[in-house]
Amino acid sequence: MADFLTGIAFFLVIEGLVYALAPSSLKRMAALLPGIPDAQLRFFGLASVAAGVGLVWMIRG
Fold this sequence. Notes:
Keywords: Membrane, Transmembrane, Transmembrane helix
Order of helices and strands: HHH
Strand content: under 5%
Structural class: mainly alpha
Number of helices: 3
Number of domains: 1
Transmembrane segments: 39-59
Pfam family, one: DUF2065
Helix content: over 70%
Largest sheet: none
Protein name: DUF2065 domain-containing protein
Protein backbone atom coordinates (compact mmCIF):
# COMPACT_ATOMS: atom_id res chain seq x y z
CA MET A 1 0.00 0.00 0.00
CA ALA A 2 2.91 2.34 0.70
CA ASP A 3 4.19 1.86 -2.86
CA PHE A 4 0.77 2.70 -4.28
CA LEU A 5 0.52 5.88 -2.22
CA THR A 6 4.07 6.83 -3.22
CA GLY A 7 3.07 6.43 -6.86
CA ILE A 8 0.04 8.68 -6.36
CA ALA A 9 2.26 11.25 -4.64
CA PHE A 10 4.73 11.24 -7.55
CA PHE A 11 1.86 11.66 -9.98
CA LEU A 12 0.63 14.70 -8.05
CA VAL A 13 4.14 16.20 -8.00
CA ILE A 14 4.58 15.80 -11.76
CA GLU A 15 1.07 17.05 -12.51
CA GLY A 16 1.61 20.06 -10.25
CA LEU A 17 4.91 20.87 -11.95
CA VAL A 18 3.22 20.94 -15.35
CA TYR A 19 0.57 23.36 -14.11
CA ALA A 20 3.13 25.51 -12.29
CA LEU A 21 5.85 25.67 -14.95
CA ALA A 22 3.97 25.56 -18.27
CA PRO A 23 0.30 26.51 -17.89
CA SER A 24 0.02 28.07 -21.35
CA SER A 25 1.49 24.97 -23.03
CA LEU A 26 -0.96 22.80 -21.09
CA LYS A 27 -3.88 24.94 -22.28
CA ARG A 28 -2.73 24.71 -25.92
CA MET A 29 -2.32 20.95 -25.67
CA ALA A 30 -5.77 20.57 -24.09
CA ALA A 31 -7.29 22.63 -26.92
CA LEU A 32 -5.81 20.20 -29.47
CA LEU A 33 -7.26 17.08 -27.81
CA PRO A 34 -10.75 17.25 -29.38
CA GLY A 35 -9.15 17.05 -32.84
CA ILE A 36 -7.32 13.80 -32.12
CA PRO A 37 -9.26 10.62 -32.99
CA ASP A 38 -10.41 8.51 -30.03
CA ALA A 39 -8.60 5.44 -31.36
CA GLN A 40 -5.28 7.29 -31.39
CA LEU A 41 -5.78 8.62 -27.85
CA ARG A 42 -6.75 5.14 -26.67
CA PHE A 43 -3.69 3.57 -28.33
CA PHE A 44 -1.26 6.03 -26.76
CA GLY A 45 -3.00 5.73 -23.39
CA LEU A 46 -2.67 1.95 -23.44
CA ALA A 47 0.94 2.22 -24.65
CA SER A 48 1.68 4.53 -21.71
CA VAL A 49 0.08 2.09 -19.29
CA ALA A 50 2.13 -0.78 -20.75
CA ALA A 51 5.34 1.26 -20.57
CA GLY A 52 4.63 2.21 -16.95
CA VAL A 53 3.87 -1.36 -15.93
CA GLY A 54 7.00 -2.54 -17.75
CA LEU A 55 9.16 0.02 -15.99
CA VAL A 56 7.76 -0.88 -12.58
CA TRP A 57 8.27 -4.56 -13.34
CA MET A 58 11.91 -3.95 -14.36
CA ILE A 59 12.65 -1.72 -11.37
CA ARG A 60 10.93 -3.91 -8.80
CA GLY A 61 12.05 -7.22 -10.38
